[in-house]
Write a structure and sequence with these properties.
Chain A is α/β, with parallel strands linked by helices. Chain A is about 45% helix and about 15% strand. Classes of the chains: A alpha/beta, B mainly alpha.
Chain lengths: ~350, ~300
Amino acid sequence: MGTKRCFALILSAAFVTQANVAGAETLVLNSYGGPYEAIIQERIIKPFEERHGIDVVYDAVGSAQQDYAKIKATNGRPGFDVAVMTASQSLQGCKDGLLEKLAVAEIPNLASLSPGLSSAAGPCGAVHEVQYLSLLYRTDKLTSAPVSWADLLDPQLTGKIILPTFQNIMAVYLLEMMSLSNGGDLIDNIDPGFDAMAKVSAQSVGFEQSSAILESYVRDGSVWAMPFWNGRAQLLVDEGVPVDYIRPREGTIPLIATLNIPVGAANKDAAVKFIDFFLEKSSQEGWVTGYRVGSARTDIDVPAELQRRQVQSVAGDKSLHLPDLMLLQAKLPEWAERWERDVVPHAN
Amino acid sequence: MSSLALDSSPPRTRRRFTGWFSYLALSPSLVVLAIFFALPMGIMIGMSFADPQTLSPTLDNYHRFLTDGLSLAGFCRTAIMSLLVAVCVTALGYPVAYFLARSRTRWRAVVFALALSPELAGVVLRTYGWLIILEDRGFINDVLLYLGLIASPLPLSKNLFAVVVGLTHVVLPFGILSLMTSIQGIDPNLERAAQMLGASRLSVIRFIVLPLSVPGIVSSMLIAFTMAASAYATPALLGGAGFKVLATMIYEQVLFYINWPFASVMAISLLVMMLAISFAGVRYESRRRLRTAGAKGDN
């Protein structure tokens, strides 16, 4: 091929690419990797792109808190249009003026969400899924199924527990539940929680931050029990790993996941359309059956067996304890220090 | 001799032009340094005196750093870890560097490639490699357990040992290059002369090569120390929750607690540590040079 011809081909390719870029609307979605990414791509993003003709660029970098740090560092212009975070970041971002307030006029499906869950996330977050902290255990290793958070102290679990690091919100929720189970409360009287966590830490083989790594310990059988989000736990059950999970008798804390729009998002129209699409009845059914989580919509049709183990509303469910997330956020630095001093050194 | 013959300096106008030209040539680097180094550094120092909530001026962040116990422990951990890595890199790198500097065989190219090969893989990849080897369920423990030599896994990961091993592997090529350059600068005839006068190979290394390669040793120690002290990925992966160094603690403060003022204090403490070590190294080397020059003058 001659040089001129080759040059002409490159030029034409560049023009075609440019034309495509100019023609299609784009949405940058910041979310998670792993099984989450595979399921959201198939069940939400692909149908959304087909219906609206909007290209979704998927950014799987960072946890919810890391994404919020990026939003804060860039003063609301983090380079993505929609962030998948949790109610904690939604409330904080709204307070800091870094997240857009979402209105039913623009996102009609917001009206179909459980009012209790919606209010827990505040006006800047659209609740697209609900999970809870469950106790995951190996069914082939334990002689009897655990029923309580206190079962983490069972002697048969010595050296057979892995714990999340404090930077993973699972650790904070576990600390709070241990506090509640031992006579303390969720925020002000947390001392019983730290005392109990020191004992649980002594049972553990250490700490890991990522859910994927935590999961690997249970998969290979070196760990027999650990706290885990129920959605991820259900995926393991469905995969055929010899595990099951419980909502302990003392109750648990829900993880309210939200979709948020940073104030400086470049493609706000597309972001609004995406959130409304994600909250649609059919999308929620696809998401709940795919990622095995709860929905804030009460009108979805999913198998009863799946629905039975999920959270749909915080109101009236006495087994769910929801701390004041803003107070919790303020307590984290102080608790992190105590965790490093009183809990981490006890691990094996 | 006439004064004309002695005055060999360039004419004044040419000198002035050369001076201006030097400044002009330096200006792009100075601008880049000012924008990307001095300015952020200034912002960071300013931020370290700000209250995390109100941003009003305060010394509380420094007070917390010095009194909470955890931060100073992280500081000491970082210093000990970096010192061990510097010693390991220099001790392991020296024989390799000597071989590379002196060898004329075809193996030189092979050893050179092998010495630098760790740099071909990313830090995270190499660190995960060590994790697979060192963790409780890793290669070493599996083999030892299989052979019945141990009853339970040895604590090889999530501690100082693992981090030092991982970082030594990461930093070793830089230490080797630094030592090699220094050893190459030593005249090989000195070694030959010593041997001809009856010195053993070991004596030549001990009394000729080692003293003359001190600048390379200092440089290798400084490079290894600063690289280890500022490393994040390796301590985060191999140290785990039980072994936190300043770099991992800064990361947590920035991304999880969004407490940038306190993160700034930690970053400044890390900077002070590295500057102090660099200053001590350079000062030691210049004093040694002066002593050597003095000894030569006495002779």
